[in-house]
């Protein structure tokens, strides 16, 4: 059974892949709007032994998300909008012939992105795949402990850790449309992770 797991190169999506690997043929899939090179995700996927694919996301979704974030003054709703779009693009399965499941690394403590039950059921019904969130019941402390045991992880401020996730591209688009200062106005300081390999 083939599973496409949305992949950013971070520890959460990597742990989700490790948990699913005994049951699925997992391919790590990064969505892109064509703004940022997905090389960090490709490199991280290779470092932990998974195949990697890149799928094109609709640029109009990115622009709508950037406008929403700018209007809101915070990134939550824009990132949620992009994540739901990415789940649907991966679930559509245009990038493979035999998709049985789509998954992500969302965890119990995430405020965003999340996939609510009605959205998950809609994806399953419309695309004929299972939606999986293997970390949905796992808190941050347990995830940090599992990652420390299984993965070599680089952490740092989100602007300094090279990844291939929505935030990187949305930051770049926000700066292009509203100037560099808009990034600090919309995005709070927080720490990101990037996987460098297995322990």
Straight-line N-to-C gap:
27 Å
Helix-strand pattern: EHEHEHHEHEHEHHE
The class by helix and strand makeup works out as alpha/beta
Q: Tally the helices.
A: 8
Q: What is the CATH T-level topology?
A: Rossmann fold
**What oligomerization state is this entry in?**
single chain
How does the overall form come out from the CA principal axes? globular
Question: Which helices and strands, and how do they pair?
Answer:
Elements: E1 2-6, H1 11-20, E2 25-32, H2 39-47, E3 51-56, H3 59-72, H4 76-92, E4 99-103, H5 117-127, E5 130-132, H6 140-150, E6 151-157, H7 166-178, H8 181-186, E7 191-198
Parallel strand pairs: 1-2, 1-4, 2-3, 4-5
Antiparallel strand pairs: 6-7
Can you offer a commentary on this structure?
The strands form 2 sheets. A 5-stranded parallel sheet has the order 3-2-1-4-5, sandwiched between helices. 46% of the residues lie in helices and 21% in strands. With 199 residues, the protein is α/β, with parallel strands linked by helices. The chain has a single domain, classed as Rossmann fold (3-Layer(aba) Sandwich). The chain is globular. It has helices spanning 11-20, 39-47, 59-72, 76-92, 117-127, 140-150, 166-178, 181-186, and strands at residues 2-6, 25-32, 51-56, 99-103, 130-132, 151-157, 191-198. The protein contains 8 helices and 7 strands; from the N terminus they run βαβαβααβαβαβααβ. Helix 3 packs across helix 7 and helix 4 (76-92) packs parallel to helix 5 (117-127).
């Amino acid at each position: 059974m083939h599973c496409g797991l949305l992949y950013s190169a971070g520890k959460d999506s990597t742990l989700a892949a490790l948990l699913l690997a005994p049951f699925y043929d997992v391919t790590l899939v990064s969505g892109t709007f064509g703004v940022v090179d997905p090389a960090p995700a490709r490199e991280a996927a290779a470092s932990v032994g998974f195949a990697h694919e890149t799928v094109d996301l609709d640029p109009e979704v990115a622009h709508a998300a950037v406008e929403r974030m700018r209007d809101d003054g915070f990134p939550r709703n824009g990132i949620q909008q992009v994540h739901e779009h990415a789940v649907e693009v991966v679930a559509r399965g245009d990038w493979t012939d035999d998709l049985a499941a789509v998954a992500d690394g969302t965890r119990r403590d995430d405020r965003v992105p999340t996939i609510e039950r009605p959205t998950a059921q809609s994806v399953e019904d419309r695309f004929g795949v299972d939606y999986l969130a293997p970390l949905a019941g796992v808190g941050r402390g347990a995830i940090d402990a599992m990652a420390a045991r299984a993965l070599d992880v680089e952490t740092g401020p989100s602007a300094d850790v090279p990844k291939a996730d929505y935030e990187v591209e949305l930051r770049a688009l926000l700066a292009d449309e509203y100037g560099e200062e808009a990034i600090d106005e919309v995005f709070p300081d927080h720490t990101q992770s990037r996987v460098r390999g297995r322990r």
